[in-house]
Amino acid sequence: MAQTKDDLIQFDAAAEDNALSPKGHDDYDAKVAELGLGEYIEEVDERGFVVIPPEKVGPPEFIERVRSAVLRVAEERTGEKFALDKNASSGKYRSEPQMSGQFILYYLLFEDRVFEEWLSNETMLAMVNHYMRGEGQLSSLTSFVKWNGGGYGDTLGLHSDTPRPCSGVLPAQCNDVVNSALCLTDYSEENGAIAFVPGSHKLCRHPQRGEGADKAVAVEAPAGSLIFFNGNVWHGAVPKKTDGLRLTLTSYICHQRLKTQEQYQRHVSREMLERNPPAFARLLGAADPMGWTSLGPQFSRFAAWAKDPETVPDSVLELHT
Predict the structure, then answer these.
(1) What is the average pLDDT across 309-320?
(2) What share of the chain is helix, strand, coil (3-state, %, to 5)?
């Protein structure tokens, strides 16, 4: 018997949504309360950014492992030797944007197991999930390597991380992007710190060239701190006036409805997914049915995850070699 129009529209939309989207249903605010992060959420809401102290982020030995991994990758890509108290060179590395006194190391996740560990950091994830309601995906994992002379000029390079829509109006009621910088060295104005225009996220637009530079505030934060910020807030950086390196690990998270900056969704190996908690797989987009080929979205693969959110099902794992 042929299907009628009425047959095709008889389905429970709410039940389908719950089955296909195991995200967004956890009590993320309870995790914020458990970790004592409420005051930091309030500051992000008011100012657009916050500095979370090292004792809330991770032990010094973990920060040292991240720093060592970043320096190793920098040496491999540039062909140069690096020391924290020495100025640097980009050597043979040709990433963009390239400028005097700074370069960016891209696509770090696959370079060292310590970067995988970072993506399971409780504090970072609790902040992300509070704003993304479990629907955030890692867009890029990078490191800014900066030394004496590195800077963006009088404009401080102020910008918003949220992609600019055709209307020019950024979202106010939800977050398309949140970002964070794990400080691998001390941050200060003299040391070329990131700078924010407090409250600018509430304007819901990108700055005009040079706008807000006179209101920007350089962040003071010891190594091991996490600088967490709303994707709408205007930010850039002041020039570095001291010798030696300023290092970060930057975790840029976008809502799953946006394209990620770096490719992770199907590039993450099954081995990597199996050795990390399920939250890692979701953050990397392993549960995202979009990006299909000739078989279409295969929603049933991902619906299986709703039955047991604490285990990545084989139907998802088999997509990863």
Answers:
(1) 82
(2) 35, 15, 50
| Per-residue pLDDT tens digits for 193-245 | 999 999 999 999 999 998 999 999 999 999 999 999 999 999 999 999 999 99
Q: Is 107 exposed, middle or buried (0-12, 13-18, 19+ CB in 10 A)?
A: middle
Cα separations in angstroms, 83 against 68, 86, 137, 232, 243: 10, 5, 33, 34, 11
Distances (CA, A) of 190 to 23, 69, 88, 184: 42, 25, 17, 16
Q: Tell me the C-alpha distance between 122 and 82, whole Å.
A: 30
In whole angstroms, what is the distance from residue 312 CA to residue 315 CA? 8
**Residue 252 near residue 228 (C-beta atoms within 8 A):** no
Residue pair 162/188 in contact by the 8 Å Cβ criterion? no
CB count in 10 Å sphere of residue 203 = 19
d(CA 130, CA 96): 32
The answer to whether residue 165 scores a pLDDT higher than 90 is no
Could you please state the CATH topology (level 3) that the domain comprising 26-258 is classified under: Jelly Rolls (2.60.120)
Can you tell me whether residue 254 is helix, strand or coil?
Answer: strand
Could you tell me the residue ranges of all domains in the chain? 26-258, 263-321
Selection from 251, 310, 262, 279 nearest residue 115 by Cα? 251
Instruction: Name the more confident of 149 and 204.
Output: 204
Q: Smallest Cα–Cα separation from 190: which of 219, 159, 154? A: 219
Query: Position 311: which residue type?
Result: T
42: left (phi over 0), alpha (psi -120 to 50) or beta: alpha
